[in-house]
Design a protein that fits this description.
mainly alpha, 3-stranded mixed sheet, 5% strand, Secreted protein, signal
């Protein structure tokens, strides 16, 4: 199923580690798209394009699992902590990663190598920009919502405006050039730079912090990824 999907969702590989961008003709980006690096709030407008939902479901194996119950999910190589509930040595604790508790039902997707590489790029950028492990959780959760941690290229005629990359940032809104925002390191650094301009972001619920940066049409969608994002950051930190 996944092999069939990749034939019509080709990768644009500028760099095998940092720039695996997916480009689709006839598939729009997921809802909740980044506008400009600003602290303004955005009204709820419209739902995500159904083609985009189907595409990402196929890419992550969700649709394949539903259609073929005998198919095993993609292994991510990530665990959820030790049997004692304590974090591995040198890793941040769950209390550090989720200081305010999770909000609402949580979602999860299996991760492939491309998604893990992009997650590592986000974690590395969090360290370099000084937002720490909590900032990394916000970044990973945001990308899980925006692109399922896939570095999406331009989606042709069905693209939602000009949103691209891990965070679905828009060149026309000042996030950078298409080449820049489809560079995971640049995109994550831009996201964290904007996050640092949000007053008291460390004390905000994840979905509020993410929404203030992203100005999404779906301001509460980020919360559902907090638990998986924390697991990813705990393992990659």
């Amino acid at each position: 199923m996944k092999a069939d999907f990749t034939r019509w969702l080709p990768a644009i590989a500028k760099d095998s580690y940092r720039k695996t961008a997916l480009s689709v003709a006839g598939v729009a980006a997921l809802g909740g798209l980044a506008l400009a690096p600003t602290a303004a709030a955005a009204p709820v407008t419209s739902g995500p394009h159904q083609g985009a939902v189907a595409a990402i479901d196929l890419a992550t194996g969700k649709a394949a699992t539903s259609a073929r119950q005998d198919e095993q999910p993609v292994e991510s190589g990530l665990t959820t902590g030790s049997a004692t509930g304590k974090p591995p040595a040198g890793k941040p604790s769950r209390a550090q990663l989720i200081p305010h508790g999770i909000e609402g039902a949580q979602s999860r997707v299996p991760l492939d190598d491309a998604q893990l590489a992009n997650a590592r790029a986000i974690v590395d950028a969090a360290k370099k920009t000084g937002v720490g492990d909590r900032g990394a959780v916000i970044g990973i959760a945001t990308s899980l919502q925006e692109s399922k941690l896939y570095n999406l290229g331009h989606l042709g005629a069905y693209n939602d405006h000009d949103s691209q990359g891990l965070f679905q940032q828009r060149p026309s809104s000042g996030w950078g050039t298409p080449d820049q925002i489809t560079d995971p390191e640049y995109a994550a650094t831009a996201f964290f730079s904007a996050l640092k301009n949000v007053g008291g972001w460390q004390d905000l619920p994840l979905t509020t912090a993410a929404q203030t940066v992203q100005v999404s049409a779906f301001p509460y969608a980020y919360a559902q990824w907090e638990e998986q994002a924390a697991d990813i950051v705990q393992q990659l930190w």
